[in-house]
């Protein structure tokens, strides 16, 4: 590949991989079965990123393994509706065209594992997107490092990644024992993002082993927990005893070794963390943003049920970010129509963090997302309030008579 036998795009990609691999201490490259690309949204990659995408496409690059794309930098159905500037749209469409030319799979989502590309236990892949990496490593037991922009394109073009870090069994053992001390109760759904947010800050890039989770966490709860941990820290792998495949027991998660450290998580810690996740005031909310990571059909159904046909009060926007396929299901099931009648808008294949929501001049975002809570003050230029989805909706929904919010 370095010699150019497979074309100039592959040769360039391989030069990058070998140089970065050497710097990371990798002795070899290994084949991977899929790639996921984060170099996809103009708000994050800017003009230089656009040029990178177009350069690989102009060199004739074609992805040789299934290669999916992270959320787009704008709503793909109606960007004008969301006040996306024309110049911004043009730059984003150049990125979209380049990836189409290279043969990417345009799922435009941060949850590609829910769109038909879920890897299996022990399968080597090359993914970016911090929350997706944490999920597939932890919940599915697949193997990927937190790859970076540009490297992700190179992986897709060559079908290879660098053999170091979490691709190696010995580097996947737990380092820190996290003991839940919650008086034997199960976590509430809204506490999974809070726990993830706390563990991200406490662990950094260390591998934690959570012991004491009661019940059977749902896909959505694990999705949102991993997103919180990957946002507030650099968590790429988090074992949960009795839940994730490499943590059937505490001993297997630590590969027979003793923990390097122990963290006890109490009710007080979860309460304080939840308070720390908010920077704004409830009476200032002008934007409720749900779906970071992208909402599933079950999460959309929950919002419909909570609303009970009530209207969103004037002066507040409420958007749900999701995939195009999930929006299609929501439409077929009647949820999208009911939501739109209440004033809730589905926005497709993007999110509040990587689209230009600042054009709206929002002051305070209310969200059920730990990832949004962490990044919104910087990415969206707003204050933020973290709350359970029920509280988010009830804070902005008028009563049945059209009065003030409940």
Give a quick precis of the structure.
This protein has helices at 8-23, 42-58, 86-102, 130-140, 151-158, 191-203, 219-232, 250-253, 267-276, 297-307, 324-332, 335-342, 370-379, 389-396, and strands at residues 29-31, 35-37, 67-69, 126-127, 160-162, 176-181, 208-211, 238-240, 261-266, 287-295, 317-322, 344-348, 364-367, 383-386. The chain is an alpha/beta fold.
Describe this structure in words.
- The chain has 406 residues and is of the alpha/beta class.
- Helices cover 38% and strands 15% of the residues.
- It has helices at residues 8-23, 42-58, 86-102, 130-140, 151-158, 191-203, 219-232, 250-253, 267-276, 297-307, 324-332, 335-342, 370-379, 389-396; strands spanning 29-31, 35-37, 67-69, 126-127, 160-162, 176-181, 208-211, 238-240, 261-266, 287-295, 317-322, 344-348, 364-367, 383-386.
- A five-stranded parallel β-sheet has the order 12-11-10-13-14, with helices on both faces. A four-stranded parallel β-sheet has the order 8-7-6-9.
- Helix 6 links the parallel strand 6 (176-181) and strand 7.
- Helix 1 (8-23) packs across helix 5, helix 2 packs across helix 3 and helix 10 packs across helix 12 (335-342).
- The radius of gyration is 21 Å and the shape is globular.
- It starts with 7 loop residues before the first helix and ends in a 10-residue tail after the last helix.
- 51% of the residues are buried.
